[in-house]
Amino acid sequence: MWRNNIIAIVAISFTVVGALWGIGNLLNAPQESAGKNVEGVLLIAENDAFNKTNPTIYAKVDTPKKISILNKDVRRHDFIVDELNINTAYLSMQQSFTTAIASRVPGTFEYYCSLHPNTMRGSVVVR
Ligand SMILES: [Cu+2]
């Protein structure tokens, strides 16, 4: 009798813990959509230019756009967009930094490398 009660309690405990664990997993279910459909841009800093031509980067209002900056030069570069609060800090050779362009307002925002602002400079257009 006593022994049967113990077994019953242990069985109930397992059931309760199992149920709680299951509910916890449901509540914390990973967001399937997160990370999907995120368009990305890769900017390579090389020979004192971004992607050779410092291309204009386009993004949509209220839609974060992933952007990675990779430094392939021996010398350091950074990537700054003051108005969008983007600043990679100095990247040394083969270093990269990934962030997002995000803006709630449309506009044209200047990007540049603070070490070579004359040759590494372009526009981010959010529309
Ligand atoms: Cu630079």
Short structural description:
With 127 residues, the protein is α/β, with parallel strands linked by helices. The protein folds into two domains: 1-30; 40-126, Cupredoxins -  blue copper proteins (Immunoglobulin-like, Sandwich). It has one helix at residues 2-27, and strands at residues 40-46, 49-50, 57-59, 65-71, 80-81, 86-87, 96-101, 107-112, 121-126.
Q: What is the element layout, followed by pairings?
A:
Elements: H1 2-27, E1 40-46, E2 49-50, E3 57-59, E4 65-71, E5 80-81, E6 86-87, E7 96-101, E8 107-112, E9 121-126
Parallel strand pairs: 1-4, 3-9
Antiparallel strand pairs: 1-2, 4-7, 5-6, 8-9
Bound molecules: copper (II) ion.
Mean pLDDT: 84
Number of helices: 1
Might you state the CATH topology name of the largest domain?
Answer: Immunoglobulin-like
Secondary-structure element pattern, one letter each: HEEEEEEEEE
The dominant shape is extended
Model regions low in confidence, pLDDT < 50 over at least 5 residues = 29-34
Which key features would you list for this structure?
127 residues; alpha/beta; Immunoglobulin-like; 2 domains; three-stranded mixed sheet; 1 helix; 9 strands; 20% helix; extended; binds copper (II) ion
Polypeptide structure, described:
With 127 residues, the chain is an alpha/beta fold. It folds into two domains: 1-30; 40-126, Cupredoxins -  blue copper proteins (Immunoglobulin-like), CATH 2.60.40.420. The chain is 20% helix and 32% strand. The strands form three sheets. It has a four-stranded mixed beta sheet, with no helix packed on it. A three-stranded mixed beta sheet has the order 3-9-8, with no helix packed on it. The longest helix is centred in the first third of the chain and has 26 residues, at 2-27. The chain is extended, with a radius of gyration of 25 Å. The N and C termini lie far apart (75 Å). Mean pLDDT is 84; it is low at 29-34. The structure holds copper (II) ion.
